[in-house]
Amino acid sequence: MDQWFHHGAGRLDKEGSLPNALSAGMEKEITMKKMKRLHIVWVSLATGVILLFSAGISTGQTEDVTFSRDIAPILQQRCQDCHRPGQMGPMSLVTYEEVRPWAPLIKTKVVTRTMPPWHLDKTVGIQEFENDVSLTNAEIDKIVRWVDAGAPRGNLEDMPAAMDWPQDELWRMAERYGREPDLIIKSTPWTVSAQGQDQWWTPIIDTGLTEDRWVTGMEVRPNMKGRRVTHHAVIYLQQREEPGDFEPVVDVPGRGSYLTEFAVGKIGDVFRENTGKLMKVGSRIAFDNHYHSVGEEITSQTELGIWFHPKGYVPKYRVYSNALGVQQAMTTLDIPPGKVTTHHAYIPLRAQARIENYQPHMHIRGKAMSMEAILPNGQVQMLNHVANFDFNWHVNYVYTDDSAPVLPAGTILHITAWHDNSIDNRANPDPTQWVGWGQRSFDEMYHAHVNMTYLNDEDYEQIIADRRALQR
Ligand code: HEC
Predict the structure, then answer these.
(1) Average pLDDT for the chain
(2) C or N terminus of the chain, fewer CB within 10 Å?
(3) Of 209, 257, 207, 217, nearest to 237 (Cα)?
(4) What pLDDT is attached to residue 67?
(5) Domains present along the chain, CATH in parentheses
(6) Does 265 sit in the ligand 1 pocket, CB within 6 Å?
């Protein structure tokens, strides 16, 4: 089937919208490089802490957890990315004075694992991710002990040096690729009024490509001022697909196939070695920018930065985006007033594939979503379960090279979505409403954004063999 995903420019519609007005600069997914860097810092800090600790014991000091020595390093690595001046977090968590009043709430948020945002059930499914920002049990335990002890400051000399944060104007992925984006595509500007209802601006922009190119990574960022009003920006790709292609998946009819996204907790996508996204001659980018007013007139523009594989290089595999379950959700989603509902979608794999990531998408009444694999031999594997879905956060759980599920042809992916339309859901705007599928945030949706790489026999067998060897 030959498809051309074209739609009139400037149509006001939306996808995956959220009504909640989060403040400026919603982004900050820690890139892998930075994670590694932080990890090294953390390991050395941890070693330091252990040394200090034993020194403390031997000189007869108390073992109490203090802000300066124990808590500040955790906040630096796990919180300040968002909780520092000018970032999206509602308050800065840098100095003791700033942190102290929040201590009780910090305890609650870390114990329930709502902060840092990582809403995955840690007791089932895959637990190795490239972008895991969650706290370890030991870190949570330290915070709890500290708060319970009255949040003591400790010795000033124990304070770690302040973090050296990158400038916000930077493309965050530039460090990873060692260069600025190869192509930047900007949405046309939209002026958000000082007051008013949420707005959607959905321009369609030509990529201007004169030859097919392969994408290795993408980052989405609103301009600096625009970060205050941009709640969410979904990016779709519109291009002609050939018959016999695995796709073409039109995730949202009229918009194209889901490409990437800017939302709290997500700034883009990085593709694994030997893989990439194909962007064809004549392709277009469809922006879905969701804006909210902040009491000041602000003109916003969203930029998509693209890093290509070198010219002429064709990666071994094309990565395909899927919105698993969207077709079923559009026709069957039915949520009576006051009820908690469960909906199921079953998606057969067309060929053996590697599942690259898992990003559940629902609206305000979304409660939980799981993704299971029903194997051709009848075995069922829970891949992941997002138990505490929070519509404020679009966390994309990116599997590592070794953890990404590799599944045989004939596998059926099973998506289960729970919605809570009762009064127990504190975010529920109206438990007396019947809710069905729709674009507005007061309507509902469910699907999982999942990138898939269909593997040839040789690579499939090889990966399976390598993993068996790892397990031994
Ligand atoms: C990815 C960005 C990000 C990271 C990382 C992050 N936060 Fe947050 N935090 C936010 C945002 C945005 C909000 C407000 C929206 C919400 O509550 O979901 C918030 C809310 C909070 C609140 C509630 C504030 C209120 O008034 O209700 C607390 C407490 C908090 N964060 C603590 C932390 C701690 C402690 C860490 C690290 C262990 C952390 N956060 C990591 C972005 C982040």
Answers:
(1) 83
(2) C
(3) 257
(4) 97
(5) 1-25+172-315 (2.60.120), 32-158 (no CATH), 317-472 (2.60.120.230)
(6) yes
